[in-house]
Amino acid sequence: MLFSSIRVDLSASLCEAKGMTRAERIYLASHRCHDVDFLLKRWRMVARKAGLQVDDLEGVNHSTILALSNHRESSGRALYLSAGIHGDEPAAVQGLLQWAEENIPFLQNHPVIIFPCLNPWGLVNNIREDEKGRDLNRCFDQPDIRMIAEIHHLIEGCNFGIAACLHEDFDAKGVYVYELARRGEKLGAALLKKVERTIPRHRGRVDGRESRNGVMRRTRGLEQIVEEIGGVPEAVHLFLNHARTALTFETPSEYSLYRRVQCHIRFLDGLADITRRAAE
Ligand SMILES: [Zn+2]
To answer: Which of 29, 72, 74, 134 is 20 to 30 A from 160 (CA-CA)?
Structure first.
């Protein structure tokens, strides 16, 4: 009895949380961010509207991993976007979907490949790793994993201007980005500027390394990082083999899901602006 009355009081005060907009309250009460079937249905709709080719990759337990694309080119202008390789990072998956739904004309007119949810089993179960306990973001040098082999095959010969992998971080106090880029080419700081009105930048260190105003930048020395973390992340594989710049964008998991999703949308808006300008 006591507990149920406490629960009622808590939810009442949460709904009246200071600064929460009506849109945020409605979103938090109605989202289905771990519902993979609903997610895939919406992505197939995006593909139909934008004229994107859909490839079904097979994940563990015959779960479906979608790839959506409209090119097989090596011009270096294409955009690579992915989310959900870690199953307990739902804002990345939702942000990518909502951004795509709102940007059909962009998807019709620019070369892209999108992996909307690379670990559907993890998303359903709200777990970082896949069903076999593997952190897939340390496995991009392991083509014996079927999903990895299929991604390698799909992007064979492709050169991307930008590859962006969307993530969340339970330890972060704000948004931040890992920027793997060629010398003199910088995008991370400007992209964070578009996002920080929604959630401020992370200050200080990330995994023991100093960030510069939320940007963790690297142009070389990736072999050492791979050794330290014990495997090849998606962004490192892309930077070394396919992309001029590879960005890993992170939102802090302890902020409101609504605001985290908005951050991913704004980050992607920024990437779209850069891509449009480069195409002019
Ligand atoms: Zn992650």
So the answer is: 134
3-class secondary-structure state, position 176: strand
The domain locations on the chain are: 1-30, 32-279
pTM, to two decimals: 0.92
Mean pLDDT for all residues in the chain: 91
Give distance in angstroms: CA of 86 to centre of ligand 1: 5
Residue 214 φ/ψ region, left for φ over 0, alpha for ψ in the -120 to 50 degree band, beta for the rest: left
- CB burial of residue 85 (10 Å; 0-12, 13-18, 19+): buried
CA distance 121 to 112: 25
Whole-number Å distance, alpha carbon 27 to ligand 1 midpoint, is: 23
Q: Which CATH number fits domain 32-279: 3.40.50.700, 3.40.630.10, 3.30.70.100, 3.40.50.720?
A: 3.40.630.10
SS3 label, residue 92: helix
